[in-house]
Amino acid sequence: MKNKVSSVALVFNDKNELALQLRAASDNSYPLHWDFSAAGGIEPDEDQKTAATRELKEELGITAEIEFVGEELYEDEKCTDKLYIYKTRHNGPFKPDPKEVEDIRFFKLDDIQKMLDSGEKFHPEFPFVWNREVISQALE
User: Fold this and answer.
1) pTM passes above 0.85
2) Domains and CATH numbers, the chain
């Protein structure tokens, strides 16, 4: 089993909608699955906050002040991933990296729940964090 450490950035707009990215079709893991606004592994020479800020720039083409939300430990048969979760406010526009991001859109939280309930494809870490109510609490 692989051990990972990752940073996650949740991007909310002024309507309290969450930006979700659709992973690129060419992605080597979970292509065309909805995922956090931006996320990725933490490099050996960086801290969690720097990693989240870097992922926002690399994946979405934005810079933004971020705020720490919390930590979660995700485990499945493939890996254990310690997630450091941050949030920010940004209304777009985004300049997504087409090698990583197929699409990026804002969704109402109720609509995300409907997508999850209907079996829409998500990266497995997203529903885990969602079900632990981290995302809804990030808005409080």
Assistant:
1) yes
2) 2-138 (3.90.79.10)
For residue 87, give the nearest of 49, 115, 54, 133 by alpha carbon: 49
Phi, psi dihedral angles at 102 (to 5 degrees):
-80, -40
Report how far Cα 58 is from the mean position of its chain's Cα atoms: 13
Separation between Cα atoms, residue 81 and residue 41, nearest integer Å: 9
What single DSSP character describes residue 60? Answer: I
Burial class (CB in 10 A: 0-12, 13-18, 19+), 7: buried
Residue range 4-24, pLDDT digits in tens: 999 999 999 999 999 999 999
**Cβ-contact 135, 34 below 8 angstroms:** no
